[in-house]
Design goal:
By secondary structure, this protein is α/β, with parallel strands linked by helices. The protein is built from six helices and five strands. Helix 1 crosses helix 2.
């Protein structure tokens, strides 16, 4: 899939918001997991981080040395960000080196997002983890978020039902 036009801070409010989050995170010594379901979006974020001089790791479904990248991020504090495709990062990763999670785009299934967020909430995590979900107002993303919240509520009601 080819994206038309240029994506930059002038055309993408979300990239601008992420740039601000990253500037504050780096200045405050925080380390960030950035999830997107779109590898092409991760590549655009990668370009933005390169422009900012932010050191990062990158993980998608085609990454072959997953654990090497995870270990490098967790152990080397010079890496401020880890860009991860939502499908590749949903299971099996322990990323306690991060204390901030950014979901760049919403996923229709809240459990998938929760699993991704849980990569930073692992045994050994000693810091409070902050989570950001970047949603563009008046778009399908807002509707996905509403659907996701309804699903969370439904699951909560089913699991907490006392029954007869």
């Amino acid at each position: 899939m080819k994206l038309e036009g240029e994506w930059n801070n002038d055309t993408s409010g979300k990239l601008g918001a992420l740039r601000e989050i990253m500037q504050e995170a780096v200045a405050g010594g925080h380390r960030v997991l950035i999830f997107s379901q779109f590898v092409e979006m991760l590549n655009l974020i990668r370009t933005m981080l390169d422009e900012e001089g932010v050191k990062y790791e990158f993980l998608t479904g085609s990454t072959t040395n997953r654990m090497e990248r995870v270990d490098r991020f967790n152990e080397d504090k010079s890496y401020s960000a880890f860009l991860i495709s939502l499908k590749a990062g949903g299971t099996g990763l322990n990323l306690t080196g991060a204390d901030t999670v950014v979901h760049f785009d919403p996923w229709w299934n809240p459990a998938v997002e929760d699993q991704a967020t849980d990569r930073a909430h692992r045994i050994g995590q000693s810091k409070t983890v902050s989570v950001y979900r970047l949603i563009t107002k008046d778009t399908v993303e807002e509707k996905i978020l509403q659907l996701s919240e309804k699903k969370r509520e439904l699951v909560s009601n089913v699991l907490s039902s006392d029954g007869p």
